[in-house]
Specification:
33% of the residues lie in helices and 19% in strands. It is an alpha/beta fold. The protein has 2 domains: 77-111 and 216-398, Rossmann fold; 132-203 and 403-430, Rossmann fold (3-Layer(aba) Sandwich), CATH 3.40.50. The strands form 6 sheets. A 6-stranded mixed sheet has the order 6-7-18-15-16-17, with helices on both faces. The chain has a 5-stranded parallel sheet with strand order 14-10-11-13-20, with helices on both faces. α2 crosses α3 (140-151), α5 packs across α7 (246-261) and α6 crosses α7. It is globular.
């Protein structure tokens, strides 16, 4: 059910050794290398040619590692802020919005920029792919992949923590090709990842790959491409809330491609990434100037995750220290890790609704809160060119007047299930 098949010419490169190689189907790491490192797509098209809006996300297909264009996508939209910018005294604030806001020309019906990942990852899959795609998620990613895979009849198994299941809402029942399993109440995103890792090793299943999947990162990078091609310049500051940091890595990689493009400047946006108090492992590692994540107690981590509003930011093992990960991105581009608590996030969401006219997701509200704080403490100046990445919004707008359908888990597992139990029970689903 793809719009058309059109492969983007690209190669892959190891960020550990620099070796360049062909993508032989679904590579998530460089062949014959032992050092953990991300791989990066190297595109034949060095200057980005943006297609018209009818292509949806695939208007940026020159820099997406896709084999086909799927139906139903929408690209992020960037506009110059008036309301929030005036409130904060900023002259050059640009908002990149991913979510549901038809008046602005963006119609991601799951309300999240995770659709940019899903349409790129699923577009990377060959039409003849028969294996079941396995995706772990704290909520938004699962909703996006579920919708895209349902619409395009792509077999999918989702692994989501029980406490995040309320994020799996849809405007209509999904196709049976999409199935859901969960980790028990009180578990978190890492527990869902552990579950997905077991399933991915089973015959007939394939891991989506998370940050290791070049299609996921380059899909997320379309937010940065939207901003730069709209503004005409690379911004000086990039604000985004992070759980894994993959979106910020993606922005950095897009930035490097845009420098090579030659038309938008040669600066690197400072990565101003934020986390939700009280759970902030990336902040802790960055402030300690540590490439490795700092040790913490799993039980205490789960307790903190229960407190935070933006649970989608609750990754206990992000791609931070890996070669090409967030640590390297921030060391190269500059920037800082910022913090906001639940109340600051709520106030920022209220201010955005009041000044810009749409509701935003709690994670995007954390990013907005840290921008507000950066203005107050003069970390940014009135004339600075700033991109605020609103990674989800318009949920209330979308839900109004609609009956919603919730995807229910077919199986539930404890936090440390036996491998044999998982394999036996999951195999019976398919």
């Amino acid at each position: 059910m793809s719009i058309k098949s059109e492969a983007t010419p690209y190669k892959l490169q190891s960020l550990a050794t620099g070796q360049i190689f062909d993508d032989s189907g679904w590579l998530l790491e460089a062949p014959n290398e032992n050092q953990p490192a991300l791989i990066r797509a190297i595109y034949a098209q060095k200057q980005l040619k943006v297609k018209d809006t009818s292509f949806g996300l695939y208007r940026f297909a020159d820099w997406l590692p896709v084999n086909r264009y799927l139906q139903g996508s929408s690209a992020p939209v960037t506009y110059k802020s008036d309301g929030l910018a005036h409130e904060l005294g900023l002259k050059n604030l640009y908002i990149t919005f991913s979510g549901y806001w038809p008046e602005k020309g963006v119609e991601m019906k799951t309300g999240s920029f995770k659709e940019t990942e899903a349409y790129s990852v699923c577009g990377r899959m060959s039409p003849g792919q028969k294996k079941v795609l396995v995706v772990a998620s704290a909520g938004n990613t699962a909703r996006a992949f579920a919708q895209v895979c349902s619409d395009n009849r792509i077999p999918l198994l989702l692994c989501v923590p029980h406490d995040n299941l309320n994020a799996l809402w849809f405007e209509s029942p999904l196709n049976a090709c999409v199935k859901l399993i969960s980790s028990e109440a009180g578990s978190d995103y890492f527990d869902a990842i552990h579950l997905s890792n077991i399933v991915s090793q089973m015959e007939g299943f394939v891991a989506e790959g998370g940050a290791k999947n070049v299609a996921r990162r380059d899909g997320m990078g379309t937010t940065f491409l939207s901003a730069v091609t709209t503004i005409g310049r690379i911004p000086e500051y990039y604000f985004q809330a992070v759980g894994s940091g993959t979106g910020a890595i993606a922005a950095w990689e897009a930035n490097l491609r845009l420098i090579e493009d030659g038309r938008f400047g040669n600066n690197k946006s400072k990565l101003m990434v934020s986390q939700n108090i009280p759970f902030h492992p990336i902040y802790d590692a960055w402030k300690a100037d540590s490439r490795a994540m700092l040790p913490f107690d799993d039980v205490e981590a789960r307790r903190k995750v229960e407190i935070m509003t933006a649970k989608v930011l609750s990754n206990r093992k992000p791609p931070y220290g890996i070669i090409g990960g967030l640590y390297d991105a921030m060391k190269d581009a500059g920037g800082d890790v910022l913090l906001a608590d639940n109340e600051q996030g709520k106030q920022a969401a209220d201010l955005f609704l009041q000044t810009e006219g749409n509701d935003i997701h709690c994670a995007a509200a954390i990013a907005t809160a840290t921008l507000i704080d950066a203005v107050r403490n003069k970390s940014v100046q009135a004339d600075d060119l700033i991109m605020l990445n609103i990674t989800g919004g318009g949920e209330d707008k979308f839900m109004t007047g609609r009956e919603l359908f919730y995807l229910k888990p077919l199986l539930s597992f404890g936090v440390n299930p036996e491998v044999s139990e998982v394999r036996e029970r999951v195999s019976n689903l398919f």
